[in-house]
Write a structure and sequence with these properties.
The chain has 374 residues and is an alpha+beta fold. Helices cover 62% and strands 15% of the residues. It starts with a helix and ends with a helix.
């Protein structure tokens, strides 16, 4: 029995992966072509060359895959494969041999888990960097001599570590600061300040050059130290976390409502730095972004669960009926996802409800419908 089940698993997996590969390739071409039609004026305004456009879509490929292509392709491929099995009475024969429908669903659920892990990895390690790189590509031809990595004056407070930073400029590419000032107050009641001409991050710590340092122990007067060389201080703030601060500040409500823009790591870093966010404005947006990133990998499980009962119904069904059904389900799912996410960013829905509602609604409906199949 176990040998037969393993053979069935391999057969079902093979019959799913082939249409999944075709769907991934087809939808990827479709989304790139569709996006190119709407972005062509933007590319022309930016005076981009052909290779710049190619590089732009290579850079944005992880975001396209994670947000749209992988879930839609998995839904369409699952419905196509299941309808094909049902049309040839293969699922009926397998169930007549004593294999339950839930057991037959394991290959589909396994592929859903794998795709969810892939989406999580893309969103955490590639998508955040892709957003910055794509913006740089769009701006590279407008002002060739301008350093787009150089930000203006930056001032922020790390509430978690009770440390305040101020700098004239920060270079996102080289992690260099000009005229940085850092003030911090440890729990022991002391106070410290560093005023430097420049600073750079090296070997896991900040190196300050030509600095003036003021230190005051609890209940004592300030003591001044001046150095024309350098001083290394292992602050917890890294160049990546400072870039996160810059990205969150530049995030507009309209961009935030389109979907998650930051990784879980970036959002948690920002929330740890800013413990007392404005509960009416910034907090709902960022918490919805965080919950959206956590919920995104589970989209694949939700689409598999909703595809299983629709594709595994008894009787002979036309494969194209399953394709049409998948398109309808796909539109319904993503429309609900966009609406609920936008309401969460605006503060009209709880961030948890806004991010998880489509998954719970469609995944729960799939489980209920599966339990009613005979």
């Amino acid at each position: 029995y176990k040998k037969i089940v393993r053979l069935l698993d391999r057969y079902l997996l093979r019959e799913l992966l082939v249409p999944l590969a075709y769907c991934l390739g087809g939808f990827l071409i479709f989304f790139v072509a569709f996006d190119l039609i709407f972005e062509i004026n933007r590319f022309q305004d930016g005076r981009l060359l052909f290779m710049d456009v190619v590089e732009y879509y290579i850079v944005t490929l992880p975001e396209i895959l994670a947000d749209q292509v992988i879930p839609i392709s998995l839904l369409l491929a699952s419905l196509y494969a299941l309808c094909n099995h049902t049309r040839h009475n293969e699922l009926t024969a397998m169930r007549a041999a004593g294999v339950s429908l839930w057991r037959l669903s394991l290959p589909y659920l396994g592929v859903g888990v794998f795709c969810g892990v892939a989406i999580f990895a893309l969103n955490e390690f590639w998508v955040p960097q892709a957003a910055d790189k794509s913006k740089d590509i769009l701006e590279r031809r407008k002002n060739p001599g301008q350093d787009r990595n150089l930000t203006g004056r930056l001032d922020f407070h790390n509430e978690g570590d009770r440390r305040h930073w101020n700098m004239a400029h920060f270079n996102r590419a080289t992690s260099e600061m000009t005229q940085p000032t850092v003030t911090w107050e440890p729990p022991d009641g002391s106070s410290h300040s560093v005023f430097a001409q420049s600073a750079i991050y090296t070997n896991g710590q900040w190196r300050f050059f030509k600095l003036e340092r003021w230190d005051r122990a609890a209940g004592e007067a300030y003591a001044q130290q001046t150095s024309n060389s350098f001083l290394d201080i292992p602050f917890s703030e890294t160049p990546a976390s400072i870039r996160t601060e810059i990205k969150v500040r530049a995030l507009t409500p309209l961009e935030a409502a389109k979907g998650p823009q930051l990784s879980i790591r970036e959002l948690l870093t920002y929330l740890r730095w800013h413990l007392h966010l404005d509960r009416e404005k910034r907090w709902p947006s960022l918490m919805t972004q965080l919950q959206g990133r956590i919920a995104a990998p589970f989209t694949c499980l939700a689409v598999v669960l909703i595809a299983l009962p629709f594709g595994a119904r008894s009787g002979r069904h036309n494969v194209f009926v399953g394709v049409a059904g998948s398109i309808f389900i796909c539109f319904a799912y993503f429309i609900l996802q966009r609406i609920s996410f936008g309401l969460g960013v605006a503060g009209y829905l709880s961030p948890v409800v806004a991010a998880w509602l489509p998954n719970f609604l469609f995944g729960g409906a799939g489980i209920v419908l599966m339990s009613r199949l005979r």
